[in-house]
Amino acid sequence: MQLRFYPYVLKLAHEFAVAAGSRSVTPGVQVEIEYEGVTGYGEASMPPYLGESIESVVSFLQQLDLNRFSDPFCMEDILHYVDDVAVGNAAAKASVDIALHDLTGKLMGLPWHKIWGLDAASAPCTTYTIGMGTPEVVKEKVLEVEGRFRVLKVKLGSDDDRALVRSVRAVTSLPLTVDVNQGWRDRQKALDDIAWLAEQGVMMVEQPLPKDRLDDLAWLTERSPLPIFADESVQRLADVRRLEGVVSGINIKLMKCTGMREAWKMVNLARALGLKVMLGCMTETSCAVSAAAQLSPMADYADLDGNLLISNDPFRGMQVKDGKIVLASAPGIGIMKV
Amino acid sequence: MQLRFYPYVLKLAHEFAVAAGSRSVTPGVQVEIEYEGVTGYGEASMPPYLGESIESVVSFLQQLDLNRFSDPFCMEDILHYVDDVAVGNAAAKASVDIALHDLTGKLMGLPWHKIWGLDAASAPCTTYTIGMGTPEVVKEKVLEVEGRFRVLKVKLGSDDDRALVRSVRAVTSLPLTVDVNQGWRDRQKALDDIAWLAEQGVMMVEQPLPKDRLDDLAWLTERSPLPIFADESVQRLADVRRLEGVVSGINIKLMKCTGMREAWKMVNLARALGLKVMLGCMTETSCAVSAAAQLSPMADYADLDGNLLISNDPFRGMQVKDGKIVLASAPGIGIMKV
Q1: Does A105 touch chain B (CB under 8 A)?
Q2: What is the dihedral of CA B228, B231, B236, B240, to 10 degrees?
Q3: What is A114-337's CATH topology?
Q4: Which CATH superfamily is domain A2-109 in?
């Protein structure tokens, strides 16, 4: 197996503002694994506030010697080896996992959702993320996309979240989800805000409180009229177990959990523990977004809009039609170079 | 998809005596699913004391209408449909699951351990089961097989279990596991017996107490010098969760859990909960045994000797070489008709 990788900076079509800051590019690394003339594509996306970077990903990938494995199908062993190279580096690890899944799926001639026994027609709708901004900017963003999606996701954790939601509601009656990104502090106020949000037609609340405040998240989930999903509180498979009874569901992202194989295990563990499942993404190309989409027929919610936010997508894969996720029939992770 | 099935009674090479009785045949049903010229093979095995029968399996299979599915790869949906037809009927459901995995694996051109990303070389040893009998008969059974296996499994729950173990030890120094099949009643005596067994070179104890006595099993596991595995206490995926902290590991059998797909989910859930995994079987042909063997690279223990006990095996699949499980490279579940 031959591993190749190169930096690829994602250019955002619009400035992206969240609770943590604002930016117009996202660093990324594109990965290829070639084996017997077939190439699998993978990707790492590294939002700066999360700790990885082009330097850290390239440095990680340079340490890998995939030639100690003669068979790309031995993913259990290969990915254990990759995981053991260093702690952290989840996006770097995910890039290898995604490329291996694309490669093996191509060698099998099937897309991974099919290999996993899933029906593409069961893929859910995806939300589209409305980032923070002034009321005018927010209304504009909503009007830009309103006809193309069935649910919008609104980023909260601003100085005036109710104003943000009112702005959105001024121009659309679509169902909404909200993502607080740990932005609220007081659990009683959070509960009051959630009650108000429920009256505004919001269906679900993501990470209302800081990630380590599990007792408060459990308190909130017990009383909340809306399901509460964990995002920052759950990174990898080992984090899922302790969220049972703490939240209603978990947001699984390939860049957090090291890739498709671990994501699949997390989906199955979550369901066995009675947790709902959401699939999310960072700002990514169609490579990683389509990879995540392969699991989407198993998900209750999906926020797979990461490729829609960029202007230099080198691939075409998962589509959104009338708000619904449409998986390509191409093998592997279901993408083609454009 | 075309489903065919016919009774197939397994003839035991030797009388098989366990805590519950003694018999010389095991009822079974062989299943075939044909799709676009390719046939997948499956099997139900129905030890009489477990509640299913040729009548119940045939009656179940006759209710299935697989023509409502155009694609055998949609296993999540197909197996949900099969599961919803009636409660119980685990072996009948497993027969369909196994045939679907054989079929789809053949359509993909790969064996399922490879599709699951596992390395065949990681498959464990299998134990060989020494059934109950007089000291002379037990010694004979051990001597018959001693050179071919690295670990023997001794059935306990008799009137004099220590005599059974002494008989085995009189003729071999191989490591042993024991399967009590719920045969012990007193937890303190069980703990004393386990301490004695540990001195006799026994490595693991299966189902020492009745299946519903979870508190006593937990008490025992906490104090036992040997790992305690649950067999009758765990049937399906929904049973795994409550065994966390109760036993050291679980014995997964396709005929208990409705097949390979659920078994794979159980393996992953068990590991996420810190439970060890064993793969077992009933008296089965190489069809179902090889199907279970596809998961074995993920297992800590395996007792996949079910086909070695019969004289009319219509298939050839998983082999045992020097005590180790050797998976065939054939696609699907890795079997060929003989």
Answers
A1: no
A2: -10
A3: TIM Barrel (3.20.20)
A4: Enolase-like, N-terminal domain (3.30.390.10)
